[in-house]
Amino acid sequence: MFNNVKLGIAPINWTNDDMPQLGGELTFEQMVSEAALAGFQGTEIGGKFPTDPAVLNHALDLRGIKIASQWFSSFLCSKPYEENEAEFIKALDFLEAVGAARINVCELTRNLFAEECSMFGSNKPVATDAEWELLCTGLNKLGRIAAERGFKLCFHHHMATVVQTFAETKRLMEHTDPRYVYLCFDTGHFTFAGEDAVEAARQFGPRIGHVHLKDIRLDKMQRAYAEGFPFRKAVLEGCFTIPGDGCVNYPEVFAALHDAHYEGWFIVEAEQDPAKANPFEYALMAREYIQKNACI
What we know:
The protein is of the alpha/beta class. The protein is built from eleven helices and eleven strands. α3 packs parallel to α4 and α7 runs parallel beside α10. It is globular.
């Protein structure tokens, strides 16, 4: 089905940078070795990865895999643009040295990732009109810097942030330059936000520059809403899983992305407790499912 798509898997399936107790004993070497053994072509940067590009490239070359992208935390709504730009350029320098061409930007002003309160209802972070202006203007500037260096800046909509819903994502896309700002489309986060991932893929198709594939266990999600889970509890309780193990309509998602002529990476990103969901076993399951349903 896809001719110019590579399949990768994120290190968060093995170790969680935000919650070190999840997979804390698992090493970088195990992660990249098992990813390669499971048939994946690449991964994203994780907290345990070598920070020396030469060391990282050597380890990846031994296993025949590549770096697809890296998360970048922006604070365009709350910190001076110049501070964001300086950190962004450092990230681009590193990614350039390891051969990546995507950077995934997520706005973390007032995010609830580490908070103990519910991430739903009135607790959900909301940006003011003035903050929206700062965010979109800043993304255009960062995106131009990225584009001039051969990168795509891909904005990552995310639960418990100011850009979570379909409407918020649409507002961001409509107020940023399509030459410089793309979307990191995440099936799981749209689904968890109560949105239709298939419709989102159709609507945002031309702007999608990177894809995260995660599934949602419907019963767990319903409990999260009913009990008002904090974000980290949603991870610990098993709300997220690999494609094919939840409620996302992946055949239709893949069809929509194919119709949009998507090219780039599919990254399996299913944050789970590795003590409950063996990372290598789930990587194999994900690879088999995607190969069958997306024909890559």
